[in-house]
């Protein structure tokens, strides 16, 4: 038996699900999964329960697109997974549904725009890194220790009476960082 299953989400506890709940119920959803969690959060347990409850032929219904995905690419990924499983998707506010050819077309245009956006970001990032390298800047974090400090640390570590932990504390780094800069040294107390 085909079901229309709703998913409603608010970003904070002081927001209310009433509008979404009422709209989803009017749209024929007998079962509605609800949660109050930021869309940026990767942990959305009610959404996971909802996705597991969906069966082939069912339709996942949301009030608005932004209630489902953390980003456009995440939304496209979720809907593509639903489509592979034979599950429809409907967004009431945007009037998008993937049960018809026209609805799938609209959604695939969104998917193409999402991929285009990712490619533009990648190209801009690569161009920015190339420009920085051309100006002599290297990417990555700045080193924790300079060459002078590394020489001092090596000299201190030659003295077996000085604990590695004390040297690390003195320079404000971890023992692991010391070992990284001075090479592999047998750990001491």
UniProtKB/TrEMBL annotation:
<keyword id="KW-0233">DNA recombination</keyword>
<keyword id="KW-0238">DNA-binding</keyword>
<dbReference type="InterPro" id="IPR036162">
    <property type="entry name" value="Resolvase-like_N_sf"/>
</dbReference>
<dbReference type="Pfam" id="PF00239">
    <property type="entry name" value="Resolvase"/>
</dbReference>
<comment type="similarity">
    <text>Belongs to the site-specific recombinase resolvase family.</text>
</comment>
<dbReference type="InterPro" id="IPR009057">
    <property type="entry name" value="Homeodomain-like_sf"/>
</dbReference>
<dbReference type="InterPro" id="IPR006118">
    <property type="entry name" value="Recombinase_CS"/>
</dbReference>
<protein>
    <submittedName>
        <fullName>Resolvase</fullName>
    </submittedName>
</protein>
<feature type="active site" description="O-(5'-phospho-DNA)-serine intermediate">
    <location>
        <position position="11"/>
    </location>
</feature>
<dbReference type="Pfam" id="PF02796">
    <property type="entry name" value="HTH_7"/>
</dbReference>
<feature type="domain" description="Resolvase/invertase-type recombinase catalytic">
    <location>
        <begin position="3"/>
        <end position="136"/>
    </location>
</feature>
<dbReference type="InterPro" id="IPR006120">
    <property type="entry name" value="Resolvase_HTH_dom"/>
</dbReference>
<dbReference type="InterPro" id="IPR006119">
    <property type="entry name" value="Resolv_N"/>
</dbReference>
<keyword id="KW-0229">DNA integration</keyword>
<dbReference type="InterPro" id="IPR050639">
    <property type="entry name" value="SSR_resolvase"/>
</dbReference>
